[in-house]
């Protein structure tokens, strides 16, 4: 209770400075809220523009020319996991590159077959045959080419090489695709390869001969971010709350009796010296009015007496023989007590 009384007394004493402070702070909050609302922030963001993708791959196909219970003669086999030299000895390699179609692009295809003789992990023979090499400029977004190879002939050549080396090493064959390109904005090279396995009557590409690359240009631009409702709304609410505090301070000043508050604070501080009771009104008593409750408590301490508080009359008094020292915040209560 004493804390509330002290706070109320402080507010009543400092009412005008507090009203001015809260009013100025409230105005600043409202101005800040308006500034935040009407001034969106900007930030720099990066984005990729002029995105261009180039994709290259090698597809396979073979026409059935031998007798087989697996396929019909003349049937075209496409992208099979395995082909057989006795059934379809000629393999067609279809090179396809997809490029942007909104402007001319220059593309060069180079498809090679490499044969490497290896023993103990080290090569002792290497040969490279260029199967396809051409340069084209297109505007429709696609460049394709085809080359056929006789796998039976390649198989026979490998058998001859194995016989010449007396089987001391292995001969590995691979296909490599090298694609160079030049667009209106970018240029580059795609290189991809896969083993070309020939074993017995079977042959196949052990993996995809395919790859792609994407180019883009990074640009930065300013982006306006709308004001955060929490931010400007919070400032506006705070400003209105400060104006509300102005009204509270003004009402507190108008409805507060500082003397009553000081008395209640003193009562709380010197509570150990104050007892409740009733006062005598004999005519032979001398009644001495004390200006403040604290002064009355000092009298009680000096005379080694207690302060008596009559809650009905709201009067404090110290009785010292024929003398009664008294204090009240309202003279009407004192007059009622003394029958004046």
What is shown here, in short?
By secondary structure, the chain is α+β, with helices and mostly antiparallel strands. It has helices at about 1-15, 15-40, 150-165, 230-255, 260-270, 295-300, 330-340; strands spanning about 40-65, 75-80, 85, 90-100, 105-120, 120-140, 140-150, 170-180, 185-200, 200-205, 210-225, 275, 285-290, 305-310, 315-320, 325-330. It has a 6-stranded antiparallel sheet with strand order 3-10-9-8-5-6, with helices on one face.
Salient structural properties:
340 residues; alpha+beta; Immunoglobulin-like; 3 domains; 6-stranded antiparallel beta sheet; 5-stranded antiparallel beta sheet; 7 helices; 16 strands; 43% strand; rod-shaped
Average pLDDT metric? 83
Whole-number radius of gyration? 52 Å
Number of strands: 16
Helix content: 25-40%
- Under the CATH scheme, the architecture of the largest domain is Sandwich
Terminal residue distance: 33 Å
Count of the domains: 3
Would you state the CATH class of the largest domain? Answer: Mainly Beta
Low-confidence spans: pLDDT under 50, at least 5 residues?
none
Order of helices and strands: HHEEEEEEEHEEEEHHEEHEEEH
